[in-house]
Amino acid sequence: MAEPGPGPQQQQPPPGPAGKEEAAPAAKKRRLAGGERYVPPPRKLSTGVSFGAAHFAETSYYFEGGLRKVRPYFFDFRTYCKGRWVGRSLLHVFSTEFRAQPLAYYRAAARAGRLRLNEQPVRDLDVVLKNNDFLRNTIHRHEPPVTAQPIQILAEDQEVVVVDKPSSLPVHPCGRFRHNTVIFILGKEHGLQELHTIHRLDRMTSGVLMFAKTVEVSKRIDEQVRERQLEKEYVCRVVGEFPEHEVVCEEPILVVSYKVGVCRVDPKGKFCKTIFQRLSYNGKSSVVKCLPHTGRTHQIRVHLQFLGHPIVNDPIYNMEAWGPDRGKGGKIDKTDEELLKALVEEHRSKQSLDILGITEEDLNSSAEGKDCGDSSDCTKPVQADPSSENSCPALDAQDPGKNDTAGCPLNSDANLETLESKELNSCENQDGEVGGKGSGEKDPLCVECKMIRRDPSPKELVMYLHALRYKGVGFEYCSRMPEWAAEDWEE
Predict the structure, then answer these.
(1) What is the rounded distance in angstroms from the CA atom of residue 46 to the CA atom of residue 380?
(2) How many CA atoms within 13 Å lie on the side-chain side of 3?
(3) What is the reported pLDDT for 114?
(4) Which of 186, 221, 231, 363: CA 20 to 30 A from 110?
(5) Are 443 and 71 in contact (CB under 8 A)?
(6) Which range has the top average pLDDT, 5-9, 12-16, 373-377, 480-484?
(7) Are strands 206-212 and 465-472 parallel, antiparallel or unpaired?
(8) Region for residue 463 given its phi and psi (left: phi exceeds 0; alpha: psi -120 to 50; beta: otherwise)
(9) Under 8 Å CB-to-CB from 486, ≥6 apart: which residues?
(10) Residue 161: φ, ψ to 5°
(11) Helix 90-97 to helix 103-111 angle, to the nearest 10 degrees?
(12) Structural contact between residues 307 and 314, judged by C-beta atoms closer than 8 angstroms
């Protein structure tokens, strides 16, 4: 049964790792010129990676069709005014940097009290922004589904927690993911809080993932990382018959797009080294052991593509967009822009943009990154106040093909301008429940509430790349070999 969702007025995420905010020193309030708007001094937010009960209580999970789903919930995106916004009107910022929605949406959001400037409701979108202005945008947030496969705890003591991460789960909040992440699931379902990320796994990579319980342990293992004292072993299933002998790949890797999360081999890239050894071949595909000696983004996947043996079901590096050779030997015959466009179009045609971890909003908006630069992998550690977000995004762009409300376009200017305040605040006043099958509550401003999206199948959320072993000074953790790595396995 779904739980009642909090309305925008109730949404007050506690800042700071322990739900506390350190007050800024009292500042002398200078005399304002006639008509000048006062901007309070910036608040000093406590730093650290920590999510508490208030964050976990924002919403709840439900399970359907082999997927873990998050009930939609109201959430505040918060940011201080960026330097390039100073002197521009709020309306101009929305119209130039958050273009996934028409201006009528922002006017309706302001009427509903969902846009706040220095914690005061925005009454006039023509207000000119000043340095230290604090913006808050309350949205109705929908998260993509992930696999319903549970997170298995491999080991736990006073210093660390080691888990077997399922494919499709980001490690920590980023992009559209917040509750459907390892950090939140461990906090909500296992009571494990204030964990520190030690190493990174791509969202689509499964396997051994290690967290420190204290800052001291995190620093100690970080030192081993810097000293190259850690050994990582992966296993994957690749296309074709991989060579029987050991293969060493040292091709440099360049990031093509942080937003989409695409890399390629390029002489201008960073040095990388991966050692590969075939374990088995079933006549169609090979199981390969991978030993990365560096830790570049998508390193194993990019090197395998370069060698002509991409991971069988890699949603990026085994796609037709790379050309007939699928990137073998670095042969692409496309500019980076053409490659990205081809990849996006290929997934758009399959209604599988969620597999990339991006949305139409990400593609249409020119705003800077949402929670982290790489929405595909979401691997950058969260070091700031966990209750805050660094932008005020619009909602997803409309997709008429998925609209379940016939006859009028979603969020058309006419529809939004005619919404009455009672309708805009209906999400606060109803006793209905947010999310879940059969839920009667909808947010009148939310495009996602009006869409029917195709759910990915559990099979689509698995990529055949698994972190099998993680070893350092004084520790070694292993997981079981995945089913798809069995010698006689057939798809």
Answers:
(1) 19
(2) 12
(3) 94
(4) 363
(5) no
(6) 480-484
(7) parallel
(8) beta
(9) none
(10) -125, 130
(11) 140
(12) no
- Grouping H, G, I as helix, E, B as strand and the rest as coil, residue 106 is helix
pLDDT tens for 408-465 read: 334 455 555 555 445 555 444 333 333 333 333 589 998 888 888 889 999 999 999 9
Q: Name the H helices within 81-165.
A: 90-97, 103-111
Six-digit token pair at 412? 């058309």
Neighbours of 397 (CB within 10 A): 18
Q: Model confidence over 366-394: pLDDT tens digits?
A: 433 333 334 344 434 333 333 334 434 43
Give the C-alpha separation, 50 to 153, whole Å.
Answer: 20
Q: What percent of the chain is helix, strand and coil (3-state, nearest 5)?
A: 25, 20, 55
**The residue type at 302:** V
Q: How far apart are CA 224 and CA 210, in angstroms?
A: 14
Quote the CA–CA distance of 54 and 252 in Å, as a whole number: 44
SS3 476: strand
In the chain, DSSP finds a helix count (H) and a strand count (E) of 12, 19
Report the pLDDT value the prediction gives residue 339, as an integer from 0 to 100. 94
Tell me how long the chain is: 491
Q: How far is the CA of 239 from the CAs of 21, 43, 310, 328, 406, in angstroms?
A: 52, 53, 6, 12, 44
Q: What is the C-alpha to C-alpha distance for residues 462 and 482, in angstroms, rounded to an integer?
A: 11
* pLDDT mean over 270-283: 96
- For tokens 């994957």, the residue is 236
Weakest mean pLDDT among 126-130, 276-280, 335-339, 420-424: 420-424
- The alpha carbons of the chain give a radius of gyration, in whole angstroms, of 24
pLDDT of residue 419: 54
pLDDT at 260: 85
Whole-angstrom Cα distance, residue 199 to residue 9?
A: 37
Q: What are phi and psi of 31, to 5 degrees?
A: -70, 130
Antiparallel, parallel or unpaired: β 465-472 and 231-239 = antiparallel
Amino acid identity for residue 173 in this structure: P
Q: Is the dihedral of CA 168, 170, 175, 176 positive or negative?
A: positive
Instruction: Let me know: does 260 contact 341? Beta carbons within 8 Å.
Output: no
Provide the annotated active-site residues: 202
Burial class (CB within 10 angstroms; exposed 0-12, middle 13-18, buried 19+) of 288: buried
pLDDT tens per residue, range 321-367? 999 999 999 999 899 999 999 999 988 888 777 777 776 666 665 43
Backbone phi, then psi, for 353, in 5-degree steps? -60, -30
Q: pLDDT class for 173, splitting at 50, 70, 90?
A: very high
Rounded-to-integer distance, Cα 410 and Cα 196, Å: 41
Which residue shows structure tokens 């506690």?
14
